[in-house]
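Write out this protein's structure.
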Amino acid sequence: MLKRKITDKLIKWKNSSKRHPLLIDGARQVGKTTAVREFARNNYKTFYELNFLENSGYAAIFSGDLDASSILTKLSLAFPSVNRTDGSTLIFLDEIQHCPNGRTSLKFLAEDERFDVIASGSLLGLNHSEEESFPVGYIETMELFPLDFEEFLWAMGIGEDIIRYLRDCYENRKSVENFIHETMLKYFTTYMVTGGMPAVVQDYAKYKDYASVLHIQRDIIAGYKKDVVKYAEDNEKARILRTFDSIPSQLSKANKKFQYSVIGQGSRSREYGTALLWLKDAGIISFCKNLSSLQVPLSGFVIGDEFKTYMNDAGLLVSMFEDGTAMKIMQGELGLFKGAFYENIIAQCLKANGFPLFYFSPSSSLEIDFVIMYRNSPCIIEVKSGENKKSKSLNTVLSTEKYGVKQAIRFSRNNVGESDYILSLPLYMVMFLEVDSSNPDSLPTADEIRKHIPD
């Protein structure tokens, strides 16, 4: 069983005095169902699990009256062998996108304190005609991503003592002992190739076989494409699939700004914009948006039609290239192309840590890979796939007064170091970047808001 950080978040939710039903969103196969089952096994005496994809008959429980007592009565009939324990019962509505009435019922279930409710699903944002079935204000939301790098290290058997040592080096700007540093770089490169999909990580942890990993990754990609065929509107299916297939080419360009022309000659945003949004709403890709300024709040300076796209799982991106790509990455033989993979894995790590994805490219000759809020101020980030080298763009922004930025992070294969305004970090230390609580581009959780609302 993989150790996941979401378990601690679920326990925090359970211990909240004013918890609402929880909705867990995320792409297919990121581990939502497994995480909830494990959480229920360790924290509840009674557990009802209703998977609306595997058993469409469960939808009948949410027909007719949707008050909590009526739903409980129907649950007792559907699960006669389950003895409910008030105060220690969890109802899990899995694949809830297949039961609109189940989503609506969350409003009524929220008013009953005899049991807790968790719902989960994929493709939740795709059917916008059913958005009214979401009881806004009566649910809390949580998003699950593929395993982050720290979770990957846990799966590889790396102990907490090593991670604590690395964190201390990060926080106190100390060099990592060389053997540990080189070992962590190898693990990070492996993570970039395998990605963080649970089935892939478990398989690699057991067999260390890249061929087996590739087979699983391509099965997942095939499953995503089947979802397109099954759930997308008929007039959008081909466009979504063509857009999906263009992602490797988009990232392989020197200028990684998304270009519709890469999808096909004559392609335009009015034709393919919806297809791109479908892939984002399905949790397959993320947008990294260009900024017109490096002022706060960053989200207020987004240029709407300029963005890059990254796969939410770097391993799946690698699998979309030809056979042998993973091994070439491990051996450092990809030349200019490897920059795309390193940018994608850093984007994946930043998003998993809660950062919105921004970049800054005011001209064709100046581009900053990522921009985040770090220690209460804008921070520019550069990603190097090799050794630490000087960057014209990074130095230009730092030395130009009009940009107003006085801190930068350069991720590379080098050890920890500082020079002027630049903090050099080894690639694997991206796992330690955390969103500032005062970050104007980070929204507070529902629990945090409630702390300031009187009863």
